[in-house]
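The following record pairs a protein chain with its ligand, NAP.
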Amino acid sequence: MSTDPKTYEYADDVLKGRIILITGASDGIGRALAIHAATLGAQVILHGRNTKKLEAVYDEIEAIKGAACPSIAVLDLASADGDAYAALAKSIEDEFGRLDGLVHNASILGQRLSLEQYDAAEWQQVLHVNLTAAFVLTQQLFPALRNSDYPSIIFTSSGVGRVGKPFWGAYSVSKFGTESMSQIIAGENAHTNLRSNCINPGPVRTKMRLEAYPAEDRDALAKPEDILGSYIYLLGPDSRGVTGESFDI
Ligand code: NAP
């Protein structure tokens, strides 16, 4: 059985009983991951900002035979205040007593303009949603994560989080910050069972990708369902001890 994240093979119940929060679970990669994790036995907490879209994902999971009923957490990362994050963390602790997996997936793309032309307010919003919100959420969820036997945090990076890409402005900078935040958490928790890693999903057929590359042949791209092995690997038991890494799919 392969434990290489890219070709990872896993049992049908590899996430059985794991409590996993996925941000941006209403669409794209987050949505596909939430549904797949539920089929593998996880109790998923679906985070997003759009209740209707989250309810549609909820209904899909509820229809899966044997899947645990998911939870929905509505929180707009662009506007939520500290109390809202604290309330989310408290509701997870009250309902489940712990959190086994935290997948930071939600992001926005922002403008693709030179830094000379980049709008400062948009800069702030992209960094807030993609980076600061993930920091605040992680901070609030540390107590619940520490109640897990092998907690795993996954941050979602990008190729432009490794090499600064002209015209990708705040998005690229936010993904560099994401890589750094994951490494800092991994280092600060090296002597605990809490792990933190990054995944760069590569080009995937989602609305964000369409926004970034509107003229591209969509059919040539991987679907979100095709790229989930590394996520499952990092959320499950076979990656115990793996931390501070960054995986490219
Ligand atoms: P997507 O389809 O646009 O989905 C983004 C998710 O984030 C959606 O659920 C969206 O909610 C949510 N979100 C955005 N702003 C939010 C906010 N203010 N509050 C709460 N939720 C918010 O994007 P994706 O392609 O699946 O991307 C997922 C992750 O992969 C991102 O971190 C992205 O940077 C990364 N990535 C993607 C690619 C790619 O080719 N697709 C490549 C490299 C990295 P709504 O449904 O309400 O919009």
